[in-house]
Amino acid sequence: MNLKTYFFSFFIYFLNINSYGQNPIEFSQLEGENVSTQSITYAIKEDNLGNLWIGSEEGILKHNSKYYRVYNTYNGLPESLSNRASEIFIDSNNNIWAGLEKGVCKYNKNLDKFELIQTADNINPSLVNSISEDSNSNIWIGGFNGLWKYNPTNKNLEKTTINDAIDVIFIYKNYVLCGTKKGLYIYNIDNKKTSKINLPASTAKIYYINTAFNAIYLGTQAGELLEIDTTTFNYKRTLKNFNHTIRDILQDKKNLYIATDGNGIYQLNNKLEIITHFKEDSNNPTSISSNGIYDLEISKEGILWAATYGGGINYYNINRLPFLKVQHKLNNKNSISSNFTRSIANDKNGNVWFGTKKGLSIWNRKKNSWKHLENFKTKNNTPVIVLALEADNNYMWVGTYNYGLFKIDIKSF
Known about the structure:
mainly beta; Methylamine Dehydrogenase, Chain H; 2 domains; 4-stranded antiparallel beta sheet; 37 strands
């Protein structure tokens, strides 16, 4: 008999993974060698040199893959401002913009500091939540005191006619879409006129706007994902309800990511079916470290970055998705019984058998359920150490270290 033995840890390769209901993806937390990581982060963006710019409770952080550079009111931010940076935006010329409680700053590369953008009368945007850019390179700013426009050519910052507090802005053609707690406003860049879109009362508080799959999606405070018409901007339909405030909507080549404030990240396919739910798990050190997700960014290398509230910056490599790591989860019987695994075999029903130092673990991949056999009814009920497995039609041969050879009817599982 050709008994096969595989030692220590292992990875299983799957061409197609549907991991909803199981969260096998390993997240990591971003660290720097020179400073401690900020736990409360609101925004993250990557510039064209690969540097990460992070808006946090304690200032703006620049991470160059090894070290942090911290910009705060003691070093690099105007002293008149507070440290809390709620928005980071990188324009088409790779200029770095930051939205803070008391204004908007632009990064001066030559002086390595942020400089305040302000009007002649010192009335500036406040509690800035969103920054964007139109096709003419004008910078648009949304904050507590309405919508603002900055012309980088003549360096003129001016207030528009929208005075409501703005949570998000999104540029679409020659329009600025403004999401507020009172609904959705459309500002026409050409004629400077504003119109309000009628939305169902329960969906009025708009927290995020973005395009995906050739549609315009809105995320609400209540957690609803809405679609509006790309021509009239009228409400079309409510697509899903995630029951937690939607903070970001981001599409990669084939999937959609929904960041929620309180329930982690959802990954959806182009049919808006949930593929994976990334959620904090106190028993899993490689899960995402906080369910409060405030911003998402996908790098050129395929890294998904997540700015979290209380868990710092988390990330994982989307390109590694075809690999699924099977490992024991603390206090969870619906997982392999031990990470010390010595053998693996598939039975004819498609179940995967694992030989461990704590007996057998049998995984039903279709149902994502586990069954365990530890002592094989031995006299002293001690765990059986399984060294080798061999499938044989309706049976599984099990070679052990301490109790010899067993023949098990797979119909029992």
